[in-house]
Amino acid sequence: MKKIFLSSSSLKNLTYKECLEEFKNLKIKNVELSYNKYDKFQNKEILKTLKNYNFQIHNYFPNDSKPFFLNLSSVEKTIVTRSINKICNNIKRAKLFNTSYVSFHAGFLFDIKKKRIVNIYRDYNKAMDVFKKNVEYLSKIAEKYKIMLLIENNVLTKKNLDFFKFNPLLLTHPKEIESFFKWAPKNVRLIFDTGHFNINAKTLKFDKYLGIKKVIKYTEAFQLSENNSIQDENKPISLDSWFMPFLKKKKFSFFSLELDENYKNEFKKQMILLKDYLKK
What we know:
By secondary structure, the chain is an alpha/beta fold. The chain has helices at residues 16-25, 42-47, 77-93, 124-144, 158-164, 174-183, 194-203, 208-215, 267-279, and strands at 4-7, 30-33, 54-58, 101-105, 111-113, 116-118, 148-152, 188-193, 219-224, 254-257. The model has no long low-confidence stretch (mean pLDDT 96).
């Protein structure tokens, strides 16, 4: 199961150390490090475990002492600078974690401070231009370290669309995703979030099967979960999940399961289910 990982955010209410201890008890060694409860000793604690786990690095990792929402399309200098620095640090530490990938979320047209939405911008083209500029800058740094950058498609619920009265998120529609990755540097690829895409298909009214066919050629890895197409529930996958046939279309670099903590008893079973399916 070297290519199948479980997101640490599946136990996001635990510190990284506590999460890894739980995964150890569940005999899970492949971990996508993402969002977890902050601990001031977290970096040292994780480095102690390098021999025991296989890691991928994603977006919020390592968590900050004060909440921070990474946004590479922000027009606020402090936010975008902090976002760039966070990804740069992950690029530089990737080899230490024995991975050639660093993944992060696509940008959005607002900022979040102290868990409150601020600075809502309606200029999509400007936000996309800022995002592309920052991605291009990061791609050049990643090239020096021989790292591939993976960008995750955002999720737009109907609730959020009703709140904003417009789509404030980048990379939500298949045509937009295709257009972006046609432009993207060669070391920038898509990490396809199936749960996000499923919700977006309902919110934005596109065919998810035709949509995934359009973007799969730009896809390097997958984040897998199921939902009701209304909320990002992070439910377990099944052999009948809508996206399963597409997982065999070509050789993808890895798959990450992103599940809710309520399904803890199924974590290992989910990894085995996916492994057995990919073998057939």
